Amino acid sequence: EKLEQIAREKAGTLALADDVEVYLAFQNKLKESLELTSVTSEMRFFDVSGVTVSDLQAAELQVKTAENSGFSKWILQWGPLHSVLERKVPERFNALREKQISDYEGTYRKLYDEVLKSSGLVDDTDAERTIGVSAMDSAKKEFLDGLRALVDEVLGSYLTARWRLN
């Protein structure tokens, strides 16, 4: 996804290059360094793509950086990981789930009292839905923060950064 975004941005800056050639240039030339599997092995018209060696170097660094930082956020929300933790450390995982529910209820009550009552919106369905979403987001963030510590403890060495950046 990140590589496609980079290629799209580069294609937008080039007047004469074909967008397809730009996309292919990034994918083809970074195939090995990014370990891409579904890319053709050769490209005939790289020279007309408008993509430079410095573009490729910058793209490689951006993709690797994004993957390193995005993976840990993504994995915490992954259902199969939750299943593993629930099986391996059920008491601790369930305690986090119960805390998430408690956090939601507490945040909802607090927002209800502070926002809805003070604004006179007690029976406003849209306002209640809005604070419900805010309370859910807050509880989910707290759950994921607690989950991060549990994941680091249980699976830490398996979740190290994918790419080593120089």
TrEMBL record:
Main location as per UniProt: secreted
GO function term, MF aspect, one: ubiquitin-protein transferase activity
Domain NEL: 1-166
A GO CC term attached to the entry: extracellular region
Keyword Zinc: no
Subcellular location: Secreted
UniProt keywords, alphabetically: Host cytoplasm, Leucine-rich repeat, Repeat, Secreted, Ubl conjugation pathway
Pfam entry (one): NEL
GO biological process, one term: protein ubiquitination
Record bears the keyword Secreted: yes
The organism's place on the tree of life at top rank: Bacteria
Entry similarity comment: Belongs to the LRR-containing bacterial E3 ligase family.
UniProt-recorded name of the protein: E3 ubiquitin--protein ligase
